[in-house]
Amino acid sequence: MLYFARWKAAAILLTALIVCAFAVPNFVSKDTVKNWPSWAQRYVVLGLDLQGGSHILLEVDAADVRKQRLEALRADVQKTLREARIQYQARPTVRGNAVEVRIRDGQNFQTALEKLRGLSQPITNNIIGVTGQQTLQVTDAGGGLFRLAPTEEATNDRIRQTVDQAIPIIERRVNELGLVEPTVQRQGVDRILVQVPGLGDPKRLLDIIGRTAKLEFRLVNQNVSPQNVPPDSEVLCETRDQSKTDVKPPLCEGGSPVVVYKEVLVEGGNLTDAKAAFDQNNQPVVDFTFDATGARKFGEVTQENVGRPFAIILDQKVISAPVIREPILGGRGQISGNFTVQSAGDLAILLRAGALPAKLTPIEQRVVGPGLGQDSITKGEYASIVGAALVIIFMLVTYGLFGFFANVAVAVNVGMIFGVLSMLNATLTLPGIAGIVLTVGIAVDSNVLIYERIREEVRHGRNAIPAIDAGFTRALATILDSNITTFIAAAVLFFIGTGPVKGFAVTLGIGIITTLFTAFTLTRLIVAYWVRMVRPQRVPI
Amino acid sequence: MRLFPLRIVPDDTSFDFIRFRRISFPISAMLSLLAIFLYFHHGLNFGIDFKGGILMEVRVKSGAADLAKMRATIAGLDLGDFQLQNFGAPSDVLIRIAEQPGGEAAQAAAKQKIHDALGNDVDYRREDVVGPRVSGELLYKGILGMFAAIAAILCYLWFRFEWQFALGAMIANVHDIVLTLGFMSITQVDFDLTSIAALLTILGYSLNDTVVIYDRIREMLRRYKKMPMPELLNVSINATLSRSIITHVTVAMSLLALLLFGGQAIHSFTATMMFGVVLVGTYTSVFIASPILIYLGVGATRGQARGDAAEEEEPEPEKPTTKSPARPAARARR
C-alpha cells in the first residue's frame, strides 16, 4: 500500500496537476486567455442564478398544432375527392379531432374509401425507420360518411417536428437581439428551453421569442358589418398597441373590428428581408422585400385590387389596412401602423427570423437580476472560505502533521473539481457551490476514515509503518463503499433532476470522483513519501 | 514532528449503544408518528416550484421597504392569495402570489400587473413564474427521483452486503426522510426543488454513515465467528465512533458557514441539511440502522452451531479483549 513505483507517482502527480491546470482560465483575465490554444480556453460557466439572466421554458401549443393539421387535412380531402371526381354531399368539415366528409353516390363509397386511405402515410423514425404506424385512421361510419382522424403518434410526431422547426427560428430572433451566449435547446418532446444571461428587459425577450409572428396579407371585406359576417370572412381587431393580447373579437375593446376575407393572398414566408426605417413623416415603419414568388403574387394582387383596403395581419391582428393606391410591382413594401422605434425594430427582427410553426406558450419563467447574482457569488465565496478555514484549522488541531497532509489533499481536490468543471464547460449554480462545500466534507471524511483506522491499528499493537499500511488498506474499502452510495444518489439526481437540482448533482458527482482519486492516490503518495523520508517509529496522530 | 493532535473522542470507548435501543426505538417511533401527524396536519409549505404561481424578490431603491403599503398595493390588484415578507435586508421583500386561475397566460398577466403597480420604486432582483403544468411535473419528478435514488442505493447495498443490511439501511432511510419532513413541516421552510436536493443529500450522507458502520460490522462478522451479536455491534459502533464524530463536526462546520454567510437564497437548503445530516443522520446510523440488524436476523445462529474451538480462529492482533479490558462489560450486561 505504501510503495509507489516512480512512474506511478509521476503519473499521479501529473494527473492532479493537469486537471487542476484546467481551472486556471477561470482566474486569468479573458484577454490573456484569448491568446491561448483553443483546448485551453475552457471556463466554468456561471449559472443564471449567479450572473443574472432569463430562463424561459416554452411549450408547443398542441391544440394549435392539431388545429393546423386538421385544417390542412380538410383541404387535402377536398382536393383528393375533387381530383377523383367523387361528389360529396357536404363539404369536408372539421369535427372534434377528425375531418368528416359525406359522399353523395353509393357506388363511389369504395373508391372514396380507397382514395382517402391513400392520404394516410406510414410514420418514419430516424432511429428505427418505418414504425408500422400510420398518420391517419380512416373509418367508414356508414351511409357515405367517412371520418379521418390523425393518430396520436402522428400528432406527437408533428409536435416534435414543430419543435425542431421552431428552435432555429428562436435562435435567429435571440441572436438578432445581440445578446451574449444565449442557449436554445429542446426539452422533452414538446418544449424549448431558452436561457439568456443578463438581459435587462425580460419582458421584451419574452415578447420576441413568444410571438408566432405569422404575417398575412388579406383583403378587407367592405360590404358587410362585423355583426353579420359571411363564411368566407372573419372579424379581426385592429389595435394601436400590438403588445396588448387581451383585445379580442368580436368586441375588440381598445381597438376596432375589421372584417377581412379568410383567403390569405400573400404570406410572411415569402419575405426575404425586413428592416426598421422612417417614412416621409418621420414615423417609424418596417420596410420589407419579397422573394420572386412573393413579389409576383403581391404584384398581381395589388394590380387587381387598386382602390381597395388591404389588411396587413400579424398573428391574427390587423396592424393596418391601407388602401392600395397603385400596383406594387417591385416586390418591396412598407408597413406603417403606430410603431415606436423599438416596436418597429422588433417587428423587423420577427419578420426576418420567420414565423414560428405553431403557437408557443411560456410555462415557466425565471429571471434573476444581475445584482442578486453578484450578491450570491460574494456570499457563496465568503461562506466557502469561512467553511474551508474552519475545516483546515480543525484538521490541523485534530491530526497535526497528518491534518496538514489532509488539507493539501482536500485543496488539490477542490482544484480538481474546478478543473473538471472547466473541462466540461459545466455550469456552476448556487446549489452547485453548496455541492462543492459538501464535497469538501466528504473529502475530509475520507482522510478521517484513514487516520482513525491507523490510530486503531496502532492501538491494536502494530508498529508505525504496518499500522499505516493496514490503515490505508482497510479504510479504502470503506471509502469506496460509502462514496459509491453517495455517487448513486448524485447520478440519479443528475438524470431525473432539473435546474438547480441538476447543478447540485453535477458538482457532487464530480466531487466524489475526485475524492476517490485523491484518497486512493494522492493522500497515500504523500504519506508514503513521508514514511520513506522520516522512517517513523511511531505514528504522530 | 508532533504538532498538537487532539483526541476528540477518547480511545477505547465502550458505550453500550445496542442496549440503548430499548429507549431509542420507542423514541424514534414516537418522533416518526409525530412527524407524520405534523405532515398531515400542518403540511409542507410548498414553494411555487410545486404549487405554481409567482415569486418575486424586490429591493426598494431607497431606505427600508414599507411592507404595509406594499401589501395594500398588491391587495388592490385582486390576485388572490399572496404573501409578503422581508428577505434578508430590510430593503428586500419577497412576494409570493398564488397560481392564477386561467392557465399559463394568466400568470404572465398577473406579473405585469405587479410591475405596473410597484412601478419604478423597486429593483426586480428575481422573478419566477411557474405555470400549473410545470409545477405538477416538477413535484412528480422530484418524488420519482427520491424513490429511484433509494431503490438504486438499496440494490447496491444488497449486492455488496446481505439483504438484511439493505433492509436495515432502508428503514433508517425512511426514518431520516420522515423526521426531516417533520422538521420542514414544523419550521414551514419553503419546500421547493432545492429541498428535494437537500433531502437526497441527507439520504446520501446518512447512508454513507450507515455504510461505514455496516462495513465494520461485516468485517467483524467475518473475523469473530463467536462473538454475540449485540457485543459485536457495540464494538463496531464504538470503533467507528471517533470517525463519525470528527466527520460530522467538519460537515457541521461547512454547513454552519453556509448557513450563516451563504445568504437567504440557500438558507432553507442549509437549515434542512443541518437538521438532517448532523442531527438525524448520525443518530440514525448509530441507534437505528445498527441495532435493527439484530431484529432482521443478522448472525442469529452464531455461537451455537460451532464448538468452542472457534474462539481460536480469531486473528490475534485485532482481538478487542486483548487491548481493551473495558469492553467485556457489554457482554456481561447483556
Structure description:
The complex is a heterodimer of chains A (541) and B (334). Chain A contains 14 helices and 21 strands. The longest helix of chain A is centred in the last third of the chain and has 36 residues, at 499-534. With 541 residues, chain A is of the alpha+beta class. Chain A has three domains: 6-52 and 369-534, Multidrug efflux transporter AcrB transmembrane fold; 62-158, Threonyl-tRNA Synthetase, Chain A, domain 2 (2-Layer Sandwich), CATH 3.30.980; 211-366, Gyrase A, domain 2. Helix content of chain A is 50%, strand content 22%. Helix content of chain B is 61%, strand content 11%. Chain B contains twelve helices and six strands. Chain B has helices at 21-41, 48-51, 67-75, 103-118, 132-160, 163-187, 193-223, 229-261, 267-289, 292-295, 320-323, 328-333, and strands spanning 45-46, 53-60, 82-87, 89-98, 122-130, 190-191. In chain B, strands 3-4-2-5 form a four-stranded antiparallel sheet. Chain B has a two-stranded parallel sheet with strand order 1-6. Chain B is elongated and about 75 Å long. The two termini of chain B are 44 Å apart.
The level 1 CATH classification of the largest domain in chain A is Mainly Alpha
Order of helices and strands of chain B: HEHEHEEHEHHEHHHHHH
Give the second-level CATH assignment, the architecture of the largest domain in chain A.
Up-down Bundle
Instruction: Provide the domain count of chain A.
Output: 3
Largest interface (CB within 8 Å) is between: A-B, 88 and 86 residues
Q: Considering DSSP H and I runs of 4 or more, what fraction of the residues of chain A is helical? A: 40-55%
Note the overall shape of chain B. Answer: elongated
Specify the structural class of chain B: alpha+beta
* Average residue pLDDT of chain A: 85
User: Largest sheet of chain A, if any?
Assistant: 6 strands, mixed
User: What's the tally of helices of chain A?
Assistant: 14
Q: Say which CATH homologous superfamily of the largest domain in chain A is assigned.
A: Multidrug efflux transporter AcrB transmembrane domain
Largest sheet of chain B: 4 strands, antiparallel
